[in-house]
Specification:
Radius of gyration of chain B: 23 Å
CATH topology of the largest domain in chain A: Methylamine Dehydrogenase, Chain H
Number of domains of chain A: 2
Helix content of chain A: under 10%
CATH class of the largest domain in chain A: Mainly Beta
CATH superfamily of one domain in chain B: Cytochrome c-like domain
Number of helices of chain A: 7
Distance between the termini of chain A: 74 Å
Oligomer: heterodimer
Mean pLDDT of chain B: 81
Low-confidence stretches of chain B: 1-38
Largest sheet of chain A: 11 strands, mixed
Helix content of chain B: 40-55%
Number of helices of chain B: 7
Strand content of chain B: under 5%
Shape of chain B: globular
CATH superfamily of the largest domain in chain A: YVTN repeat-like/Quinoprotein amine dehydrogenase
Distance between the termini of chain B: 68 Å
Largest sheet of chain B: none
CATH topology of one domain in chain B: Cytochrome Bc1 Complex, Chain D, domain 2
Radius of gyration of chain A: 28 Å
Largest interface: A-B, 37 and 28 residues
Structural class of chain B: mainly alpha
Number of strands of chain A: 46
Number of strands of chain B: 0
Order of helices and strands of chain B: HHHHHHH
Chain lengths: 653, 152
């Protein structure tokens, strides 16, 4: 019966459409997700490419997911802070150092806010930075290889949340602490928090090759530092951080940190900070933090422990920091493309507060102060206020901008995205999200040049949106078309972990620069075998190094004898292929770690401890050719103390 | 539910076809797309397909070039080719007597295209099953390997 009804309806619709050809096109767009035009907008035909790369944080997965927009297709999950057995990240000998910290090997983190490198205020497609929240770290992903190139631990920090945002020429990536803590750490009563705990804001310089160096920290009062964004254009040289818990509560924060009418946005003049550093107004304090760097030449990472950091105290550095009063426990701290407006998304406030950079400078110049906190001048609210968006929704979290003077804010409690006008502060449109939206993203939204075509809302709750998967459900991203006056929901797609924040840019800023293979002649891995001639097995006591190669579709050597129970075997495997998209895998029975997945020209090392006498197989895990199933070999394991001679061969040679 | 989707798809398709304008979507009946037309085999020597259309080979062998070629061959090719023995790929002894120099260089420089479009290369893939790997060599390197093959 139902089918008949639909068929008739469909017939009527199609008849109407055929008749109305041409004029009726706009009508189709208003039918929402069911209409043909919406499907067409997100449809990327097989073999065609998406227009944008989107980098969406994996939250508690510790990783970074790469999607295409508008299709929402997932291309890669880049392992950042968590071990990944698929790619051997954090399992093979080469990448283990990437996860070293002052706390030892930490194989997990909570990855929050990816931000793309910029030149002259525009996204340049070189690197993506992302912060580890739990054990404070900042990672840099090289967008030529889509691999984690560097991880820097942040000392004196805890809950590395107001991170990892870049200045407009990627002079710095910043990392702000959420938790204030005793600095330096010491044994003291928690109840003595107030006045004793400090919040460190870290400025990490970024070199021409992307190399990160913790340049200095500003030791702020014991508030929570929630999010941050750089000044740009006229406000380049400043950085803005939201604070909450200006009450300095140390327990039941949901009540005790919500007492003050206003918290602050901290405006940091980092050019001034550079002057103070140059003038020697810093103290060098002992600290311990790991700096981990991966090299595409050695295909290996190194971890170095750093021992000190330069610290600036705002009370000793006039003009370095000002507080902008902002209602009420603000989350997102967002700067519009012109650099004039600073939006404080007061998550407990009925209104959205927008500050003016020009008015801020004027207030500073005329010393329109409303007291001070720990030596930091507090500017008068009315003197820095640009405007207020009145009652736009409940629970504002984050604002991004398009290229037409509009702003878009997420409202967690009322589950919606609201579009409003910069300057007039009027609400132009609102659309529901499904459900409980956290952050949102417009490609280039944190830069001088947003591409105002799409908006991605990232939702915490999906309840009934997808097929259920037991108690744990996926979180989601929702794609809106924002090219017209009204936003239009086009599609939604599941995300990995929890998508806290995202960054995106046109694909042509990244796609043409891709590394396709690693050149064998450039391979400087200490255990590389660049041809089958160079393969060998070397015993040093009970440590055995196997120099192995792989090519479609065999290992060399593929028969190894003379390994003994109790040996520590390192398989150093080089992929001899020099063609695009021909990785090989390597798996050894009973290995207590993972497989290897080795790109053309690369060398990776799997550690294996044979525990039982026998003849044990290894094989290629990545379907590489028609003879992939033939890509296998054996290792003979003799008893400890056996006299079986060490030997290796391929096809009897 | 599936029925509805199908119907919606049909409606959508109808819309596109109906409103698309003058763009051509399908070849007229009877005309095959290019890829389906069987290529005429070139009359004369089989030079293969790829970047090398024609190459002059001097009568005497350039020993220095052949030595370079041997080096490149050993670094990049011996994982699959042994001289004097069939291995993963064919024995290359006397290959210059079996194949045109252009064919050899094209097979080194663009094996994917060769096994797609050249009948001899197709037959080799069918026989050996393991595809010839593209080792991303330069034309100069391929030329030096060709000179080395002349010494075998």
């Amino acid at each position: 019966m139902k089918k008949t009804v639909f068929s008739i309806t469909a017939f009527a619709i199609s008849a109407a459409m055929l008749v109305g050809c041409g004029g009726a096109k706009k009508e189709g767009g208003k039918k929402g997700a069911l209409s043909g035009s919406n499907a067409e907008k997100v449809y990327v035909a097989p073999g065609e490419h998406d227009e944008f790369y989107a980098f969406i944080s994996g939250g508690f997965s510790g990783q970074l997911a790469v999607y295409g927009l508008p299709s929402g297709r997932l291309f890669k999950v880049i392992p950042i802070f968590s071990q990944d057995a698929e790619k051997a990240y954090g399992y093979n000998e080469e990448t283990k150092p990437m996860l070293e910290t002052s706390y030892g090997f930490v194989p997990w983190d909570d990855a929050h806010h990816p931000d793309l490198s910029q030149t002259k205020g525009e996204i340049d497609g070189r690197w993506c930075f992302i912060n580890g929240n739990n054990t404070p770290r900042i990672a840099r992903v090289d967008l030529k290889t889509f691999e984690t190139a560097e991880i820097l631990e942040i000392p004196n920090s805890a809950g590395n949340h107001s991170s990892s945002f870049v200045t407009e020429n990627t002079e710095y990536v910043v990392a702000g602490t959420r938790f204030s803590v005793p600095v330096p750490q010491r044994d003291m009563p928690i109840s003595e928090y107030k006045g004793n705990f400090k919040g460190a804001l870290s400025f990490i310089s970024v070199g021409n090759e992307g190399e990160m160096d913790l340049s200095f920290q500003i030791l702020m009062p014991g508030f929570d530092y929630d999010l941050a964004h750089p000044g740009r254009g006229a406000s380049h040289g400043w950085f803005f951080f939201t604070t909450y818990n200006s009450e300095e509560a140390n327990s039941l924060l949901e009540v005790n940190a919500s007492q003050n009418d206003k918290d602050f946005i901290a405006a940091i003049n980092w050019k001034k900070a550079e002057e103070y550093i140059a003038a020697g107004k810093f103290t060098t304090v002992p600290a311990e933090y790991a700096h981990n760097v991966y090299s595409d030449r050695t295909h290996s990472a190194t971890s170095t422990m750093k021992k000190e950091v330069r610290v600036l105290n705002p009370a000793d550095c006039p003009g370095l920091v000002y507080f902008l009063p902002t209602p009420k426990s603000p989350h997102g701290c967002d700067v519009d493309p012109s650099g004039e407006y600073i939006v404080g998304n007061g998550k407990l406030s009925a209104n959205l507060t927008v500050h003016s950079f020009t008015k801020m400078l004027d207030a500073i110049k005329n010393e329109k102060f409303d007291g001070e906190a720990y030596g930091i001048p507090i500017l008068k609210f009315e003197d820095v206020l640009a405007g207020t968006v009145v009652q736009p929704g409940l629970g504002p979290l984050h604002t991004e901008f398009d290229d037409k003077g509009n702003a878009y804010t997420t409202f967690f409690i009322s589950s919606e995205v609201v579009k409003w006008k910069l300057g007039t502060w009027e609400v132009l449109d609102r659309k529901p999200t499904y459900y409980s939206v956290g952050h949102l993203m417009i490609p280039g939204g944190n830069s001088q040049k947003p591409w105002g075509k799409y908006l991605v809302a990232m939702n915490k709750i999906t309840k009934d949106r997808y097929l259920p998967t037991g108690p744990e459900l996926c979180q989601s991203a929702q794609l809106y078309d924002i090219s017209g006056d009204k936003m239009e929901l086009l599609s939604d797609f599941p995300t990995i972990g929890e998508p806290h924040y995202a960054a995106a840019c046109p694909a042509d800023l990244i796609a043409p620069n891709q590394t396709k293979i690693y050149k064998l002649e450039d391979n400087q891995h200490p255990y590389v075998a660049k041809s089958e001639k160079e393969t060998k097995v070397v015993r040093e006591g009970n440590v055995v190094h196997v120099y192995m190669t792989m090519i479609r579709s065999h290992f060399a050597p593929d028969n190894i004898e003379g390994i003994k129970v109790g040996d520590k075997v390192y398989f150093h495997v080089t992929n001899l292929e020099q063609d695009y998209d021909v990785p090989h895998g390597f798996a050894m029975i009973g290995a207590n770690n993972s497989e290897l997945l080795i790109m053309p020209g690369q060398t990776e090392t799997l550690f294996w401890e044979p525990k039982q006498v026998g003849v044990w197989p290894m094989y290629c895990t990545d379907f590489c050719s028609a003879l992939h199933q033939e890509m296998q070999g054996y290792v003979r394991v003799s008893p400890a103390g056996s006299s079986t001679a060490l030997s290796w061969s391929l096809d009897g040679e | 539910m599936k029925t509805i989707n199908v119907i919606v798809a049909i409606v959508v398709a109808a819309l596109f076809i109906g409103c698309g304008g003058g763009e051509q979507r399908e070849a007229p009946p009877g005309v095959k797309p290019k890829s389906m037309v069987k290529k005429e085999e070139p009359a004369g020597p089989d030079k293969g397909v790829g970047p090398i259309k024609s190459i002059d080979i001097p009568a005497t062998i350039d020993d220095a070039l052949a030595a370079t070629g041997k080096e490149v061959f050993e670094a990049k090719c011996t994982a699959c080719h042994k001289i004097g023995k069939r291995f993963v790929g064919p024995d290359l002894t006397g290959v210059v007597d079996r194949r045109e120099p252009e064919w050899i260089m094209n097979m080194i420089l663009d094996p994917e295209l060769m096994v797609k479009e050249n009948e001899t290369a197709k037959a080799l893939l069918a026989e050996y099953m393991s595809p010839m790997a593209n080792q991303s060599l330069t034309e100069e390197e391929a030329r030096s390997i060709l000179e080395y093959f002349r010494t075998l």
